[in-house]
């Protein structure tokens, strides 16, 4: 059941109150909806391909590093989540350049430029929550991160379905808890 973590990605997102207000409003004013249907499909395919590649790389690294080292459940899960977080940080840092390159293909006249920059501390923290005023892209970034965490839990607890369920439910609640913590302390 290795797809359990990936299948939990929509659950992570849909369990958050911040995302419901935007879904109901139809992400009014979001840049994504200024594109034509074919352009939106292309952008969605790129986003899903990047997320799928991240999940595949994270799973392969988990098997190579954690399982081969025979770490215990707690330490192994901690190391795995750390590795996944680093790769996730790299993805959210580099992905804007991929998307900007796509925009240059579909929107004539956009200048050639680098849009890569490392998110600051507040940007990383807000990327862990589903803000009620968040854009579709921000919500996808957040769902991707928490989906990676759920996938790590499922990978490390293959024969412990009750523990997987409890840990997955905790991950579903955590973004809501983080969204009420004041950021920028």
Keywords:
185 residues; mainly alpha; 72% helix; 0% strand; globular
Name the helicity range: over 70%
Ends: how far apart?
40 Å
Regions with little confidence, pLDDT below 50 for 5+ residues: none
Give the overall silhouette: globular
Q: How much beta, percentage-wise?
A: under 5%
- Strand and helix order: HHHHHHH
Backbone CA Rg: 17 Å
Explain briefly what this protein structure is:
The protein has 185 residues and is mainly alpha-helical.
Tell me what you see in this structure.
With 185 residues, the chain is mostly helical. 72% of the residues lie in helices and 0% in strands. The protein contains seven helices and no strands. Helix 1 runs parallel beside helix 7 and helix 6 (136-156) runs antiparallel to helix 7. The longest helix has 34 residues, at 73-106. It is globular. The mean pLDDT is 76.
Q: Any chance you could write out the topology, listing elements then pairs?
A:
Blueprint: H1 4-14, H2 17-25, H3 37-69, H4 73-106, H5 121-126, H6 136-156, H7 161-179
């Amino acid at each position: 059941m290795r797809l359990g973590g990936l299948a939990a990605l929509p659950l992570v997102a849909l369990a958050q109150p911040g995302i419901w207000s935007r879904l109901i409003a139809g992400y009014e004013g979001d840049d994504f909806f200024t594109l034509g249907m074919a352009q939106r499909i292309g952008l969605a395919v790129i986003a899903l391909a990047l997320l799928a590649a991240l999940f595949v790389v994270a799973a392969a690294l988990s098997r190579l590093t954690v399982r081969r080292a025979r770490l215990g459940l707690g330490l192994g899960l901690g190391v795995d989540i750390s590795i996944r977080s680093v790769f996730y940080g790299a993805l959210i840092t580099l992905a804007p350049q991929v998307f900007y390159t796509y925009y240059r293909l579909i929107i004539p006249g956009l200048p050639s430029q680098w849009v890569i920059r490392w998110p600051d501390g507040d940007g990383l923290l807000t990327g862990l929550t589903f803000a009620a005023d968040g854009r579709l892209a921000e919500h996808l970034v957040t769902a991707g991160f928490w989906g990676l965490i759920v996938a790590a839990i499922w990978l490390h607890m293959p024969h412990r379905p009750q523990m997987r369920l409890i840990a997955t439910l905790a991950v579903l609640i955590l973004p809501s808890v983080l969204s009420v913590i004041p950021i920028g302390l």
